[in-house]
Write a structure and sequence with these properties.
Length: 85
């Protein structure tokens, strides 16, 4: 069930949002609804205890643990020095 909502926004923001909605062939109401829905969904997903990982992404895992303090730029620099000696 749709319910009416009144918002006060900057005129230029509204104009640009209407242009965006029109270019995506959607109403401004539906664009705003989609945005608000994404906010609510992200909060709901943050509360999930276990994130579902697709089999493809799981297959990419190497099982190698990377230290949190790893300086990848230094490590890559060392790799290149050894490679081109």
């Amino acid at each position: 069930m749709d319910t009416k909502l009144t918002l006060k926004l900057d005129k230029h923001v509204i104009e640009r949002a209407k242009e965006y909605a029109a270019s995506h062939e959607r109403s401004l109401s539906r664009v705003i609804e989609s945005y608000l829905q994404s906010l609510v969904m992200s909060d709901d997903s943050a509360e999930m205890k276990e994130v579902q990982i697709s089999p493809f992404v799981r297959s990419l895992s190497s099982g190698i643990s990377i230290p949190a303090d790893l300086d990848y730029k230094t490590e890559y620099s060392k790799y290149l020095v050894n490679k081109y000696q």
